């Protein structure tokens, strides 16, 4: 499941990056990208079942970040300071992933 999650994450990263760079969007792109992010996050979390928390905290935080990044716009939910919280969550997840390597 982790490989499929990584594939979905890769597609999400490439597509959102390229579409932002060329300033292009298409109908339902927001929904598609939200669903890709949620699916990748859920697949990473499912892969973590039964594994130790300490060595996989970076992946778990990445999963939570992906799910939140997908859910918030999909549900049209506005949470105060969510941009700041998501940015901090992304930084912590990134640092933990780098330390693990």
Kindly list the characteristics that best describe this protein.
101 residues; mainly alpha; 4 helices; globular
Which helices and strands appear, and what pairs or packs with what?
Blueprint: H1 2-21, H2 29-47, H3 57-74, H4 82-100
Largest sheet: none
What integer value in Å does the Rg equal? Answer: 14 Å
Q: Helix and strand succession?
A: HHHH
Low-confidence stretches: none
Task: Please indicate the count of domains.
Answer: 1
What separation lies between the terminal Cα atoms? 20 Å
Helical percent range?
A: over 70%
Structural class: mainly alpha
| Proportion of strand residues | under 5%
Question: Could you tell me the number of beta strands?
Answer: 0
With helices defined by DSSP (H or I, 4 residues minimum), what is the helix count?
Answer: 4
Shape: globular
Quick check: average pLDDT? 90
Give your account of this protein's structure.
The longest helix has 20 residues, at 2-21. 75% of the residues lie in helices and 0% in strands. It is mostly helical and 101 residues long. The model has no long low-confidence stretch (mean pLDDT 90). It has helices at 2-21, 29-47, 57-74, 82-100.
Structure summarized in a few sentences:
Helix content is 75%, strand content 0%.
